[in-house]
Amino acid sequence: MNNIEILKSNNVDIDAALELWGDMDSYNESLLEFKESLNSKLASLENYKNSRDWNNYAILAHSMKSESKYLGFMREAEVFLDHELKGKEENGIYIEANFSTVSNTVRNIVTLLTSYFGEENPNKKNILIADDSNIILNYLEKNIGNEYAILKALNGQEAIHLLTKHNIYAILLDLNMPGINGFEVLQYLKESNLMDKIPVVIITGDDTEETIKKAFTYPILDVLNKPFNEKSIYSVITSIKNFYENQNL
Fold it and tell me: Which CATH architecture has domain 126-247?
C-alpha cells in the first residue's frame, strides 16, 4: 500500500488533488502516468530550448504546470509556470540560465514518486551518470538500468549533490557540461578522497590527446568515447566490476 504521508511530508496538497480526482485509486493511476511521462517531457523541453522553439517550449511547460497543479504539486507547478511565461516572452537567456531548476524539479518529483510507489530496489547498486544530454542519459539507463539503479545529473552541480545523498557504486562522467564541468567534479572527488573508493569512467566526445591526458592526471578507471554502443558500454561495466574484484583480492 502506498504511504500517503510520503507525499504530505513533501508538501504535496493531497486534499486539493482529491477534490479533482475524487478517490485515491483514480489519483494514484494519474500520479503513476505523470511519473512515467516526466523524463520524456523534460527531454522534449530541452530539445525545444536547444532549437529555440519558444512557442512549443511554453506549451509544454504549461502542460507540465497544469498536471503538477492537478496532482497537488503546487510548488513545482510554480517552477513550470515561470518557464511557461519566459517561453511566451521568448526569454532564452533566462531559460538557459535557469533550466537546471526545471531539471531538478522533475528529478525530485520522480524520486519522490518512486519512493511513494515502492519501486526502489535496495539490492541494486547506484551508478551516477552525469551528462548534459538527456539522450545520452536515457540511452545509458536503457542499457544498464536493469542491473543497476541509475542516478542522473545534467551538470556537475547535480552530480555533486547526488554524491552527497547516495552511496555510489560507480560514476560515468561527461567532461563538457554547463556550470560545474566534469573536470571540476573530478577535483571534488579528489579533494574528498573518493577517487580510490569509487571507479570513475569518463564520457567524452573530445578524444584529443590534450583532453585525455588531462583526464588521466586523475585516477580515472576508463574512458567511454562518444559515439558509443552497447559493446563499449558493456566493456566499461566490466572494468567497473573488475575494479571491485581487484580490491577484494
Answer: 3-Layer(aba) Sandwich (3.40)
